[in-house]
Structures are given as structure tokens and as C-alpha cells.
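INPUT
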Amino acid sequence: MSKIVKASELVVPTIVVGGIYGQAGVGKSTIALSAPQPLLIDTDGGVHRINAEHRCDTVQVKSYQDILDVLNEDLSAYESIVIDTLGEMVNFISNYFIAKDPSLVTRGGTLNIKIWGLIKAEFAMLKLKMKQLNKNLIFVAHEKEEKDGETRVCRLDVAGSTGKDVVKILDFLGYCEMIGKRRTISFSPCQRYYAKNSINLDDMIQIPTLDEGDENNFISEMMIKPSIQRRNEAHAELVERNKLMEQGRKIISGNEPNEAIKLMKDLGLPKYESQKLFQELKASTEMIYNIDTKVFG
Amino acid sequence: MNYLTPTLLNSWLYYLNSEYCTIDDFLRTLKREPFERTKPMQDGIDFEDEVFKGMHEFYNPYIQGADYQVKLTGEYNGIMIVGVADFIRPDLIIDVKKTKSYELGKYFNTSQHIIYPYLTDINNFKYLIRCGKQDYEEEYKYKEGQAEKLIDDFISWLKATNLYETWKLHWNK
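OUTPUT
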């Protein structure tokens, strides 16, 4: 049996891998912990800054080995892993390699270029391991401001290329900031920051203020649940488009070209499929299509 | 009929947003002055071809079953829009880039992720980027009305800078 699965038959994932970055003090860690049943991997010692009411089970990381060890433990009680922060995790990985090979630090105290290759390879392995856990995965990062020509842009504060590399596995990357007195998270890229939205979230969501006793469930309720619903909708739409293409092909094979054009219009196909079918129709007949009269003759 | 392409729009956007681009650079594109293919341009074309041939593992899952080098046409307000998309799947448009330096968001000020979705009704767009030996991706979602606004802005700008007639003269099919 073939192992190839058609795009329209792919299983729709029910977990998300996301990233949150942005202004200091805006509440990134608290937002990250609003994922379902989280385990916090606290690499920057920031758990004490989170309101006690919203803290969760935590690994207070002292070395990269702590992270490797915890990933080998029984994590069945958790639905989400939160890495806070990604930048500090990369620093731990860097120190891990330096401890093994001190020559990775030059005499001048800078890092030998070789270390970035090692970090990249290690992070690739770690990503794979974390993905295999099949849990929601949330990365938190601080922002750093850089100048790009005349514009000041906000980027993930992560050493080396890991910040750019991690984006490949993310379903979303949200930028958190205060807009007036509102705390917001944006998923739509703009001049000032990059964001990612593979799971059809709203462009910007206002982050609710948590009063005493309020449940911290922003990611669960406002992001994961709608995204799963929208993924299913997008999947259903793809299936429908495929069905319409099949119908279109039947029309081409069973009708005279000018009649086929009329019937194909009634299908209401999106532009690309419509153009593609038209090319198939042109290829299926020896008649010539006249662009001006829009008729085969 | 007058027409425009993502290349022309990119040249304009680059002029507007980059301190390294002068009006003369943009005018060369607007006047369709012939230019020699530079080595980085050729490298980009060669790399794209290698991706199509499946020579770069990272790209293979994205381009599986995709159409390659798809010529797209459409119309807006009496203007013909023409472009060639690198790869198209029913749910995704892909543009392959090769660059010497990369930061996230580098391709925000380009037009492919706005124009190609408009021409296809496929709203998901990914730039797949090779920089050195690293591969990255940058993703955009098309929002209704974005292409119309970009084209309207471009035409208004041409009129405001008295370059509208130049465009009409050189971009006419």
C-alpha cells in the first residue's frame, strides 16, 4: 500500500507549536503558561516574576543537561511544554559545548565560529525530540531592537541563527506589546516586527487582564481552540476544491469545449484552479481558442 | 493594455523603503532599460532550478506535487497584472530566494505575497530562503483588498510624481 497521503487526506494536527516575544513586562510568561496543562522549563529564572496564582510545575534549569534529562522523564501529566526563554536556552546549549571543549572560546573571550554549527545541530535534535513528545510547545523570547536602514525593527533576542531557525517549526509567532493601555498580541507581520500565523488566528488579539481567581487560559481558549476549528475548516475547503477539480475534469472529457467552458464557470472554482482547468481544456482539444471572441473554433 | 509585474512593484517598494536605492534605480526599471544578469541573479535562478530537481532536502516536502514556474495573469481596474510564481500547490504559493544575508521579515516589503494570492485565490504564501548553508522560511497570509490597495498606491504615486505617462509608455501590451 502506498505511504503517500494526498494533501486533502492529511490528518489535521490538534497541537500547536508557537512563539511569543515582545516588550519586557507585558506578561509574555503568563500568556505562555495559559497553554493547556503546562510544564515550564524556566531557563532565565523568571518564574518568581509570575503571579503565584498562575505558576505551574516548573523545571528550574541550571544546565542544558537539566533540559535533556527532563525530556526523558514521564511527561504524560502535561499537555504543553513552555520554554522561557529561548535565548537563555541557547546560552545553556552554548555553555554545554564550551564545558566540553574550552577552545570554543577564543583567547579574546569571544565565541569560536565553530560553536554555532554545534548549537544548530543540537537545536535541530532538540526540536525533533520535543516534537516527538506530541505536546503543545511554546517558546518565549525577549525582543531586541535593531536598526534596518531608517526603521527600527524588533527581533527575537536569541544568539546566532536559532531565532530565525525556530520559526520554521512554529505554527504561530506572536508579538506582544502595549498599545495605549491595552496588552495585545499580533500575528500579522509588519514593518516593525515579524510575526507568523499558520493557523488562521485573528491578526491581533487583546490579552485579557487577569483578576484574582480568573483562570489563565488565553492560549487554550483564544488560540488553540479556534485554530483547530479553523484548521478543520481550511482542510474541508481544500477537500471541496479537489472535488470541484474532479468535477471540472469530468466536464472537460464529457462535453464539447464551448459547452465545457460554460459548465466550468458554474462550478465557482477559485482563480488558480479555474485557470488550470482551462489550460487542461485547451490541451484536450484540437480546436483553437480565440482570445477576442472567447470561443473555441 | 497597460500592465505591471511584481518586479516593477518590488523595484518601487525598494526605492520607497531602502536608503540604498535611488530614484534612478527605480527609473531604470520603469523605463525597462536592458540590464545584464548579475551573478547573484544567476545564482538565484540556478538555485531555484536545483530546488525543482529535488536537490535540496529542506525544500522537497514543500514542493511535492506543486506546479513549477506558473505564469499568472489577472486584471484590476483595467490594468493587466502578470507574474510567474515559482511553485504553486492548491493551498500554498512558494517563492524561492537565495540571499547573502537574512533577517526575519526581509521580504515584508516585496509584492509577490500580495500579488500572487490575488491572482490565484490562494491566500497562503511562503518564501523559502537559502542564506549561506542555512534555510529559513517567511510566511504571509493574504488579506482581502491588499493587492488592490498596493496597486492603487502605486498608480497614485506615479501620478503624484509625474511618472504615470512614463509607465503607460513602457508597460503596454
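end of record. Chain B has a mean pLDDT of 94.
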